[in-house]
Amino acid sequence: MGAVDSVVVDPITASGNLPAGSCNLADMRAANPGVKFYAYLDIGGISDASSWTRDPFHSTCVSLNRDGANYTVRPNNSRVAVDSNGRAVYPGFSHLRIASLSSSYNASCADRAADIVTTDSVRGTTGAAPTQFDGVFLDDMAMSPAQGQNMRDIGTWGPWGSDDGYGQAMLRTVAAIDDEVARRDGGAKIAGNLGVYADYPNQQALAKQLGSSRDLDWIFRESTIGGANGSSMGAWHVTQQNGALMGQVAALGTPVVMHNFAVNATTTPAASGGVGGSCLLDSTPNAGALQAAVDTRRARDMSMVLATTLMSRTGPGQLQTAVAEAQTTCRETRDSGKQFRESIFWYSLDEDRSETADLRYAVNWKGLYAVGDTQFAYDRHVHSRKLNDGRWVRINFLNYGVTVNGHYIPPRTGVLTR
């Protein structure tokens, strides 16, 4: 873990209520003294507290079974997903009830975050000394209800009146958390996973308002080029909408970290588009060759993320890139009970591969940024932008290789050229 700057972990790792033999926050801190540890906190949803949970180390601001349903929402709109009691939920995540984002809810969020960063963890299973989290990472920090439940699409619901009303309520939640954490622990950091529709002007305005507020130490953008299943975003959206917006947000004063999940290791690892089939197992025929195809896809995807970061960075150090890790779907964990080929403890991507090494070094050089306008070729499927050191960063969004200004760019790959 020491190869990264910051990690986000479940706050339960500080509580001591873990399966026997599990390492906890104190153990992780002792093994990785230079890494910042952020506690995960979902501020848009409310879950039940499990029997493992010891306050304050819960992953939502309030818990349904301990705090009641006062902060949930009854939508009065049949197009909104609800639980068995009529409370609004995230579609596909019915264990998460949507929070009201009321002033009293915001106060509870602020208290939870401040309690998490000011409470000592238990001693490590290795004997490591108790420690505290360096900060809190806010998830489901969306500028609209999203998840297919935006009011512009399905009609008004909840207490907010509009999608913009929801976004403004979320900004107040973030501000309340920042104020309370700063009051009780001025050294703790606050980061958040920004959910925003980058092609909607009203959403762009909310994201810029967040960036200029500086209520967060940094913003996380979860998807840069596509989904975790390999589905691809359009070329224009990647650089001219999402990438451009993140560059503008960062330029307003809050750094942005660009991210994309690595595709799953499966039996049908497509070179582009969605990956399918079943998860790779140790016993899968031809597993080595299939894994090699997965690794190549991951490297090319990551090259596009790195190139997008550079192309969107218009000043020193404004945007960075996160490590690309696969989701747990096809990765063996303590509880998976399957012989998946990949372990949760393995890196999903060798960042020294030829597709990514030069770009990674370039992104880590914080004084390197884009100048001038983006140039387009091949019917706007190949994007190029000049950097302030005279080099060019280029992205080929096509499924076949192309040559631009004498430089060959492999299929769906980002490159640096002279």
Structure write-up:
The protein is of the alpha/beta class and 418 residues long. The protein has one domain (6-370): Aldolase class I (TIM Barrel, Alpha-Beta Barrel), CATH 3.20.20. 28% of the residues lie in helices and 21% in strands. The chain has nine helices and 20 strands. The strands form six sheets. Strands 1-2-6-7-8-9-12 form a seven-stranded parallel beta sheet.
Shape by Cα distribution: globular
Largest sheet descriptor: 7 strands, parallel
Q: Return residue spans where pLDDT drops below 50 for at least 5 consecutive residues.
A: none
Strand order of the largest sheet: 1-2-6-7-8-9-12
% residues in beta strands: 15-25%
User: From the alpha-carbon coordinates, what is the Rg to the nearest angstrom?
Assistant: 22 Å
Count of folded domains: 1
Using the 3D structure, state the CATH architecture.
Alpha-Beta Barrel
Share in helix = 25-40%
> What name goes with the CATH superfamily?
Aldolase class I
The CATH topology is: TIM Barrel
Q: What would you call the structural class?
A: alpha/beta
Please identify the top-level CATH class: Alpha Beta
Helical region count?
9
Quickly list its features.
single chain; 418 residues; alpha/beta; TIM Barrel; seven-stranded parallel sheet; four-stranded antiparallel sheet; 20 strands
